[in-house]
Amino acid sequence: MTISQPVDQPASPQNASEVTQNGFASEALLALHARGFIHQCTSFAGLDRVLAGEEAVPVYIGFDATADSLHVGHLLPIMTLRWLQRHGHKPIVLVGGGTTRIGDPSFRSEARPILTDEQIAANINGIRKVFGRFLRFGDGPSDAVLVNNADWLDQLGYVDLLRDIGRHFSVNRMLSFDSVKSRLERQESLSFLEFNYMILQAFDFLELSRRFGCRAQMGGGDQWANIINGVDLVRRVDGNEVFGMTAPLLTTSSGVKMGKTAAGAVWLNADRLSAFDYWQFWRNCEDGDVGRFLRLFTDLPLLDIEQLEQLSGAAINEAKIVLADEATRLAHGEFELEAVKSAANGVFGANGDLNGLPTLEFTAHALKDGIGILALIVMAGFAKTNSEARRLVEGGAVRIDDKQITDPEHHILNYAFDDWALLQLSVGKKRHAAIKRVG
């Protein structure tokens, strides 16, 4: 695992590499540092002092509603909140019902597509279910709360915002941030709409400070500029001391951005990605990433992780299975994990079943004339086109149950099921799906 350097740094950011574990008094920062969640902070000493107190400290992380599911790339901030809560602090999950309408300029080459209010509402309904699997919500001092920044951003008066908030922002400084500067240097369009995003995110911090007594904002390294803007705004407007902290920007050992695969994003919602495929993602991680991922994405004690890191050669697969089991248990629950394990046993040769696999369902009527093997491969998501599927078949990579399929014109017919309702479609050793006859 390699760590990309953060962007938009203030004059003197504090890096986690400069702070030893023994330098923290708070259990929360000790745990986060030991597991690799910390990169930069506006003031480690100040945040450590606050988190070491006896009261629960409200801390927030924001998530824009750009899709109806979060993905693996969001897990780092979610797990940060999880560990803070485990050490007695209060997570604030901010969903960007307001800021999603604007779009963070970030390092994209073009503006984020504009979504309708209906699309944003549907996306929020989709992503809110994820947080309940990782965080405890309720009315207690350390119970998490979920809030929507549309509650205050939609009520803002434009002239009031310019007068009361806009005067605290330097355009010169905003233009110096890498997220803005990179777009301008590439002579790519940067709309005034996007340019205002950092002001609205800073206003979020001010509002959460007033409503909940929020003392810190956390996020990925690419959010450093937006975070320090919020820290500065709270100090300038209300005179309160608040803090910002970022996690490292993660890439896999081979340099791929975490959560990106050839098939697309690794979604956290089961209706976007099956629990089995989610388990497979972790099971197939690179050897050099296992220890790091165990620290970041599971609750396993560090001593257990250190023992798993000692495994080498073929034995490293045992650690990968532990990683896949623990990550899937968190995201999908114990019941789904058991189904996945049963399916995995079936795939890898033990006495399991296929009920946990992603499933393609066909009626007996549809199977009367047969379903072509190329169409099945494309429908399962194992190829994007029939031509790509044909190459897989002709290359000997495709099997139905234990039979290799080498004829691109092969069709699955009713009789193929015999007395069984399920067949197993496999492409290579790592991609599997169930074909189910219904009705």
UniProtKB/TrEMBL annotation:
- The residue numbers the entry assigns to motif 'KMSKS' region are 257-261
Alphabetically ordered keywords of this record: Aminoacyl-tRNA synthetase, ATP-binding, Cytoplasm, Ligase, Nucleotide-binding, Protein biosynthesis, RNA-binding
**InterPro entries linked to this entry:** aa-tRNA-synth_Ic, Rossmann-like_a/b/a_fold, S4_RNA-bd, S4_RNA-bd_sf, Tyr-tRNA-ligase, Tyr-tRNA-ligase_bac-type, Tyr-tRNA-ligase_bac_1
Q: Where in the cell is it found?
A: Cytoplasm
Q: What is its EC number?
A: 6.1.1.1
- Major enzyme class: ligase
By its UniProt entry, which PROSITE patterns does this protein fall under? S4
Mainly resides where?
cytoplasm
Q: So where does L-tyrosine get bound?
A: Y60, Y197, Q201
Q: Does the keyword DNA damage apply?
A: no
Where does the chain bind ATP? K260
- What is a single molecular function from GO for this protein? ligase activity
In terms of Gene3D superfamilies, this protein maps to: HUPs, RNA-binding S4 domain, Tyrosyl-Transfer RNA Synthetase
Q: Motif 'HIGH' region: residue span?
A: 65-74
Which residue numbers delimit the RNA-binding S4 domain?
376-411
Protein family membership: Belongs to the class-I aminoacyl-tRNA synthetase family. TyrS type 1 subfamily.
Q: Record's HAMAP family?
A: Tyr_tRNA_synth_type1 (MF_02006)
Q: What task does this protein carry out?
A: Catalyzes the attachment of tyrosine to tRNA(Tyr) in a two-step reaction: tyrosine is first activated by ATP to form Tyr-AMP and then transferred to the acceptor end of tRNA(Tyr).
Instruction: Quote the subunit structure annotation.
Output: Homodimer.
Q: Which PANTHER family match?
A: TYROSINE--TRNA LIGASE, MITOCHONDRIAL, TYROSYL-TRNA SYNTHETASE
Q: What is this protein called?
A: Tyrosine--tRNA ligase
Source species of the chain: Thalassospira povalilytica
- This protein's encoding gene: tyrS
